[in-house]
Design goal:
Strand content: 15-25%
Mean pLDDT: 94
Radius of gyration: 23 Å
Helix content: 25-40%
Shape: globular
Low-confidence stretches: none
CATH class of the largest domain: Alpha Beta
Number of domains: 2
Structural class: alpha/beta
CATH topology of the largest domain: Carbamate kinase
Distance between the termini: 47 Å
Largest sheet: 8 strands, mixed
CATH architecture of the largest domain: 3-Layer(aba) Sandwich
Strand order of the largest sheet: 3-4-2-1-7-11-12-10
Length: 415
């Protein structure tokens, strides 16, 4: 049994959905398809969620954009405007949701609304496959992937999810299942999400729970590249990576794989392939157990929208372990992801993903004990297997805030 994950770009148009059929035909075996929301629909539903939470009347215009997009995909796939009862039912559920009173918890409301992207994409694709004779079963993953109630970053209940998943994905009468990435459900059937770009993680989790032989993530690139082609020219494909190297790259911000994806696969030694849905016959990149040393070209990862806070104790005492502990407790409270740390006798600097709600409350609390300096809108560049000329190229003409080097990794925070 194989687990395939189709990202938003691979199902963004009617033509792309039809192309996915060709990929399935290359692999005549039992499969679970984990599918993301189509194209930029997660972004569009985030707009709906924010406008709903802020009671902005333009919410309905944003909702209509989402509906028009899916109606257009259905019309192209069916050859004419068509109302699919299963899809209309989902839209009616979303309408009821955003017509109702909101809670005071944005993260909760976010999950209840944004999850419709995956529910809609999988229903449309499942119905289309059945229409053209590819028999499949649609599964609501919220019924078998159970999580806690940490909305927008839910944690999986592994023991319960294992039992429920094996009960759902039996392959007794079906050899193809279609389900959602990114979302889960609590014990009380509240919808949760697993973190942005979490569909890769879902594929890794289901592969682990169902003992899959491999996972394949289908992208619009030929495999994992040594740099983001949106920012760098002359990129090179990496033919193989170890689990450890893939974790390093994803933690540093590599977009091609969600950071949590690798561990469930490594635990059961399940290989992960990253391939192009445009050229499915090509080998792509394999992530697996590697015994031999890897000799890689410099791998450059850029994370944008980073913030930097530098703290100096108000009484000019040394930065102590207690000071560090207090700061990290505060960062954990605000669920901020720290990507770089640097400490001297009097200063503690932390670079982290800039939150959408701003950092004013964090700064206010830090100022009770520290003098606080901060910058926003920075880039954090990580270079694995760096060369001196690679660092020079990255730093040229840019203001450097923090630079760190270890044996294999250089990290530079810059404007």
């Amino acid at each position: 049994m194989k687990v395939f994950k189709f990202g938003g770009a691979s199902v963004s148009t009617a033509e792309a959905v039809r192309n996915s059929v060709n990929i399935l035909k290359l692999y005549p075996c039992n499969k679970v398809l984990v599918i993301s929301a189509m194209d930029k629909i997660t972004n569009a539903l985030e707009i709906v969620a924010r406008k709903y939470f802020n009671q902005d009347p333009e919410m309905w215009s944003a909702f209509q954009d989402v509906k028009n997009y899916h109606d257009g995909i259905v019309a192209e796939l069916w050859g004419e405007p068509t109302e699919l009862p299963e899809v209309e039912k989902l839209f009616n559920q979303l309408i009821i949701r955003i017509k109702g009173d909101r809670s005071l918890n944005f993260d909760y409301e976010y999950d209840q609304i944004v999850a419709f992207g995956e529910l809609l994409s999988t229903q449309i694709i499942s119905l289309y496959y059945n229409k053209i004779g590819i028999k499949n079963r649609w599964v609501d993953v919220r019924n078998c992937l159970k999580t806690d109630d940490q909305f927008r970053e839910a944690n999986i209940n592994w023991e319960l999810s294992t039992r429920l998943a094996k009960r759902q994905f039996t392959f007794e009468s079906d050899d193809l299942y279609i389900t959602q990435g990114f979302i889960g459900g609590t014990l009380t059937n509240q919808t949760t999400t697993l973190g942005r770009e979490g569909s890769d993680y879902t594929a890794g989790v289901l592969a682990n729970l169902l003992d899959a032989e491999e996972v394949c993530i289908w992208k619009n690139v030929p495999g994992i590249l040594n740099a983001d082609p949106d920012f760098f020219s002359d990129t090179q494909k990496l033919d193989e990576l170890s689990y450890k190297e893939a974790i390093e790259l994803s933690y540093s911000g590599a977009k091609v794989i969600h950071p949590k994806t690798i561990k469930p696969l490594q635990n059961k030694n399940i290989p992960l392939f990253v391939k192009s849905f445009l050229e499915p016959e090509k080998s792509g990149t394999i992530i697996h157990a590697v015994e031999h040393p890897l000799e890689l070209v410099p791998v450059i990862i850029m994370k944008k929208n980073m913030a930097l806070i530098t703290l100096t104790p108000n009484d000019f005492s040394f930065i102590s372990i207690n000071s560090v502990s207090d700061v990290f407790s505060l960062f954990a409270k605000y669920r901020l992801r720290v990507g770089l740390i640097q400490q001297s006798a009097l200063d503690l600097s932390l670079a982290f993903d800039e939150p959408e709600q701003g950092i004013e409350n964090l700064i206010s609390q830090l100022q009770q004990k520290f003098e606080v300096k901060y910058n926003t809108g920075l880039d954090l560049v990580t270079i694995r297997y760096y060369l001196p000329e690679t660092i020079t190229q990255i730093e040229s003409g840019r203001k450097i805030y923090v630079e760190q080097k270890s044996r294999r990794t250089a990290r530079i925070l810059l404007k």
